[in-house]
Every structure is written in structure tokens, then in C-alpha cells.
Specification:
Structural class: alpha/beta
Number of strands: 11
Distance between the termini: 59 Å
Mean pLDDT: 87
CATH superfamily of the largest domain: Periplasmic binding protein-like II
Helix content: 40-55%
Shape: elongated
CATH architecture of the largest domain: 3-Layer(aba) Sandwich
Largest sheet: 9 strands, mixed
CATH class of the largest domain: Alpha Beta
Radius of gyration: 24 Å
Order of helices and strands: HHHEEHEHEHEEHEHEHEHEEH
Number of helices: 11
CATH topology of the largest domain: D-Maltodextrin-Binding Protein, domain 2
Strand content: 15-25%
């Protein structure tokens, strides 16, 4: 008969990897250091090989230990999902749900939809994680978050998704700019302007460049900002023009400035969508969440 590791042992092992030493890991796991150390030793005995080298310079995982860690994280994520699935079967959108959101969406969409979500699903405990798309996808694969609200298209790998809706880009210029009075501008006219963009890592930059038919990673004369709010201030100070999505414009990001938003031919846009791990048993629940977010975003 094969002896199997327990979830408690795997949880202690994952805590050790996250915290880097036995003392902090024990504190995070809510047990004594001797209890956590014994748990790791039991895990090693069950697997029949050392997983951790215990030296003066701290904890170092063996090659097998690294591979076991990845499997442990996956098993723990599956176990947690099993528990949440059972809860969702009794009543959808109740209990804890960890939602990742990108920075170009969270400050503009969440204030609009969260109050209605809390009212519609009072038993839902929504934990929010704001980060750039690539890191959110990594967290999703690791099971650190349950789903993520992203801007598409993006190479997300094997995930399922539900659409929230299109988010149209508009050209933002000072009122004194020659293009400010245009009813519409062409992408070619945008390409002729000093274009201000977000720094690398924000997918909105790629979407904005694609919207204007710019294929290179970044124009040589483009300036980079850390947030949409910074972009607005740069345009307001006469440093160039930018492309902003309707989501930010509708939230009043230009309020108090001397800037205007001009439509672009073809109404180029990014697609907002909720993504989750492919094959999860909670797909129905996530589709329900996406539907609620889409409805509330339109009614904002």
C-alpha cells in the first residue's frame, strides 16, 4: 500500500517555500516550529527522499524538492477549488473568491460594479489582486487567484473566458491642439503625433499601438508612463497625445483638465474579459460573475 502525503504536510511544505525559513513558515501556518519541522520530515519519509537541505545559510530545496513543490502547489489549489465548488453548488458566488484585475481596469470599473455585486451577492467575499497581465496569468496557473479580469487579446495559454464587453480607444489631446475640433481622426493622423504610452508590461500599450496600426513594440519617440493618470498629466503639460479607453474616460479621468477625447476611425478597441483555468468545475460560477460585471459596467 502506498502511503500518501496529507494536505497538511503539503501546506506546511508550501509555507516553507514561501517564507524561506522554518520560523516564519510556522508562524504563517499557525503552528509551532517543531510541529512544522516534524511535518516536513514526515513528508520526506513518505516520499523516501530528502526535499530540503537544512544549512546555516538557510533552507535550500533539492532538485526533487523543487519538483515536489510544484506538484504540492497544484494539489493544494485543486483541494481548495474542490471545497469552493461544493460551496458554490449550494449557493453560487458565496464564500471567498480571489479576483485578479489589471491596473488599467481596476480603478475605473471596480468602483462602479463592486457595490452592486455586494448587494446582489452579500455572502461573496471578494479578495482583489491588482497586477499586470503576465503576473496575473502566472498567479492563475499557480492557483493563487481564481479568475482574472483582463484586456484581450493576450496570449493567456490554456484558459477559458467570458466577455465583459468592448472598450473603445479615443485620442486625447489638449483643447488647443489642431486635432481637438476634428469629428474623427484616422490612425495615420495619430501615428504622426508624439504618442505617450504606458511603460512596458502594460498590455494596454500593445492594444493602443495595434489600434493605430503600429506594429513595432514601441515607437522610438514614444514616452512611457506608469499609469493612465500620469499619461493624462503628461498630455495636459503639452508633452504629446495619447490613446485612452472609454472605461477611463467614462470614469472621469479627464475631469479638471483642459483635454478632449476625439473618436478614431474604425472605433479601435480592446476586449475586456474574465478568464479562469480551463477545466475548472467553477466555470458556471465564473460565467455568472462575468455576466454580473458586464451588466453593472453598462449600467454605471
Amino acid at each position: 500500500m502506498i502511503h500518501l502525503p496529507t494536505l497538511k504536510q503539503l501546506r506546511h511544505y508550501a509555507a516553507l517555500a514561501e517564507k524561506g525559513n522554518f520560523g516564519r513558515a510556522a508562524e504563517a501556518a499557525g503552528v509551532t516550529q517543531s510541529t512544522l519541522s516534524a511535518s516536513i520530515q514526515e513528508l520526506e519519509a513518505i516520499l523516501g527522499a530528502p526535499l530540503v537541505d537544512r544549512g546555516k545559510r538557510g533552507v535550500v530545496f533539492t532538485p526533487l524538492g523543487e519538483r515536489v513543490l510544484e506538484r504540492a502547489k497544484s494539489l493544494l489549489a485543486d483541494a481548495e477549488e474542490l471545497a469552493r465548488e461544493a460551496s458554490a453548488a449550494r449557493e453560487p458566488l458565496t464564500g471567498e473568491l480571489r479576483l485578479g484585475v489589471i491596473p488599467t481596469v481596476s480603478p475605473f470599473l471596480l468602483p462602479r460594479v463592486l457595490p452592486r455585486l455586494r448587494k446582489a451577492y452579500p455572502k461573496l467575499k471578494l479578495f482583489l489582486v491588482e497586477d499586470q497581465t503576465e503576473r496575473l496569468i502566472d498567479r492563475l496557473r499557480e492557483g493563487a487567484i481564481d479568475c482574472a479580469l483582463l484586456a484581450l487579446p493576450y496570449d493567456t495559454g490554456p484558459v477559458d473566458n467570458a466577455s465583459i464587453g468592448a472598450d473603445v480607444f479615443r485620442l486625447v489631446v489638449p483643447k488647443a491642439h489642431p486635432l481637438a475640433k476634428a469629428k474623427r481622426v484616422s490612425p495615420a493622423m495619430v501615428r504622426g503625433e508624439p504618442l505617450l504610452l504606458l511603460e512596458d508590461g502594460h498590455c494596454l500599450t500593445d492594444h493602443a499601438l495595434s489600434a493605430c496600426g503600429i506594429k513595432s513594440a514601441r515607437p522610438r519617440d514614444a514616452f512611457a508612463a506608469t499609469s493612465l493618470f500620469t499619461l493624462v498629466q503628461m498630455v495636459a503639460n503639452g508633452l504629446g497625445v495619447t490613446l485612452l479607453p472609454d472605461l477611463a474616460l467614462d470614469a472621469g479621468i479627464l475631469r479638471g483638465t483642459d483635454l478632449v477625447a476625439v473618436p478614431v476611425d474604425g472605433d479601435p478597441s480592446r476586449e475586456l474579459g474574465l478568464v479562469w483555468r480551463k477545466g475548472t468545475a467553477r466555470a458556471m460560477e465564473f460565467r455568472l460573475l462575468a455576466k454580473a460585471i458586464a451588466r453593472d459596467s453598462r449600467n454605471g
